[in-house]
Amino acid sequence: MELLKPSAANSSPLTPLTFLERASTAYSDCTSIVYNATSYTWSHTHRRCLQLASSIASLGIKRHDVVAVVAFNVPAMYELHFAVPMSGAILSTINTRLDARTVSVLLRHSESKLVFVDQSCRSLVVEAVSLFPIKIRPPVLILITDHDDDDVASPTTDFATTYEGMVENGDPGFEWVRPESEWDPMVLNYTSGTTSSPKGVVHCHRGLFIATVDSLIDWAVPKQPVYLWTLPMFHANGWSYTWGMAAVGGTNICLRKFDAPKIYGLIERHGVTHMCGAPVVLNMLLNSPQHKQPLKNPVQFLTAGAPPPATVLFGAESLGFVVSHGYGLTETAGLVVSCAWRRRWNSFPSSERAKLKARQGVRTIGMAQVDVVDPNTGRSVKPDGASLGEIAVKGSSVMLGYLKDPEATSFCMREKGRFYTGDVGVVHPDGYVEIRDRSKDVIISGGENVCSAEVESVVYSNPAVKEVAVVARKDKFWGETPCAFVSLKSGLDGNCPSEKEIMEFCRKRLPHYMAPKTVVFKEELPKTATGKIQKFLLRDIANSLL
């Protein structure tokens, strides 16, 4: 057969920005965004993004310049996911919980030319910019005001103008800047901060297009869902559902801050159908006084970041949340492994279903390969559910690399064209992958490997426990021993378990070398904005204990 060559008609660069154009036609009068008393249609959102992109370009922002955003899940944050790359710039969303010094470092590392700042973050960003060396030109600051909120901010001399001012002054007929190549960078995301040294992850238009379509298919998202933003949009761009909601004409219910009673109210008022978040979000919903009554209609809840404890799964599903579990990283632009559910599993006992659902699962259709390999030989481990190895992935949504860090890029993509995740897992006989730990979180006690997630699962089964994190504590005899940080549920009325009782609880259910040798009670465990427990902080505390 004659081999034909591609032509201009079939070689348009893939980009998720085109989803907004289509939504403005296919779902023109359908609701796109709801936030307190504010609502827009998809035709409104398309026009606003074009106007904003026009104003960004008019400030002298050029193709591949970085434009940063420090904001919560407000309408502006959603619109900027389209408007910034439509101006030709690269979008960088920054964690709102970072301190001023770290924000300053990220802005300088990314060489951000422009920063959109949520009114609640204005003092944080102003301080971050004040830390710039005199010889480095600081970025221009744009203030995002929120007229639906009690804390209405007004522009100050630190800000060039307001977000709404830029929208109003922009050109709705702006010809947005399309990528020259689908490999052009589109976003710059810094890793979430569970380690002490965030890295700048660069994704291209092609990778994000495929990641978005992949995420919609894998979760079986229908047309026009009602999506509640409990997952921060700054975290891996909301697992690519920012662009995904435009693709399916969904309604984005924006939520500035996590508030369990308000979430239940929004679910009922707007008929929410889909939500995402770490297992801690489900746990917080379960521990809210509002959770006593089951939901009127089922709500699909996609969780990732840590294996959901069985008790949390039981509680969430008894309320009407239909929990799906997946796995991904900032470096993969969203979830690339999911626990594809088999119908026959529905007939299994609840404890067995929870155990199956806690597994990460199989690759999504957009991924070429997901494997668990021996980090020394690169060979696949035995599919026996016990042999440990590092999870390695290969596919279109894997990042281009780390910004200005070729050494780190080469290290994690060092062999056979795969991305080495740093997560330790096993492969079960049925081919499903299960994470056991981060490689740095494996505890080696007396020569035995202890998976902290396995210990945490047992501690979680204690009815008094709300949250737990297990880390290594240095030990002169054993090398390391497990140290459990435990947060207890409220309302125990003096029936709080002691440190010794928690340890004995675990010793009855685990090999003794795996049971915690130390238990520390804390009201709250330190977390990132996405709900991941910051174990590096807990390790420091554990090793400072006398």
Automatic annotation (TrEMBL):
GO molecular function: 2-methylbutanoate-CoA ligase activity; ATP binding; medium-chain fatty acid-CoA ligase activity; propionate-CoA ligase activity
Pfam families: AMP-binding, AMP-binding_C
PROSITE patterns listed in its UniProt record: AMP_BINDING
Keyword entries, A-Z: ATP-binding, Cytoplasm, Ligase, Nucleotide-binding
GO cellular component, one term: cytosol
Localization terms from the record: Cytoplasm, Cytosol
Location, primary (coarse class): cytoplasm
Keyword Cytoplasm: yes
Gene3D superfamilies: 3.30.300.30, N-terminal domain of ligase-like (3.40.50.12780)
Protein name according to UniProt: 4-coumarate--CoA ligase
Native source organism of the sequence: Rhamnella rubrinervis
